[in-house]
Amino acid sequence: LEVPKPTCTLPPQMSCLTKIVCTIGPASCSVEVLKKLIAAGMNVARLNFSHGNYDLMREWFRNVRTAAAELNKEIAVMADLQGPKIRCNGFPGGSIELKHNAEVIIAFSAEDGAPATATSPAIITTKFQPLAERAKPGEHILFDDGYLEVVVERTAADGVHCRVVVPGVLKPRKGINLPQTDLGPLPALTAKDTEDARFVLRELDIDFLSLSFVRRPEDIQDLRRIIQEYGKDVKIISKIEKPQAIERLSDIVAASDGIMVARGDLGVEVGNHKVPGLQKRMIREAIARGIPVITATQMLESMINNPRPTRAEASDVANAVWDGTDAVMLSAETAAGNFPVEAVTMMRQILVDAEAQPPSAFSSQLADITRGLGQVQLDSSGTEIGMSMGRTAVELAKLTHSAAIACVTDTGNAAVRVSTCRPAIPIFSFTTSLTTVRRLALVRGCFPILMSRIPEAEMAFIELERVLTERGCVHEGDRVVYTAGLPTLKRATTNTVHIRRVGGGL
Question: What is the mean pLDDT of residues 159-181?
Answer without folding.
Answer: 93
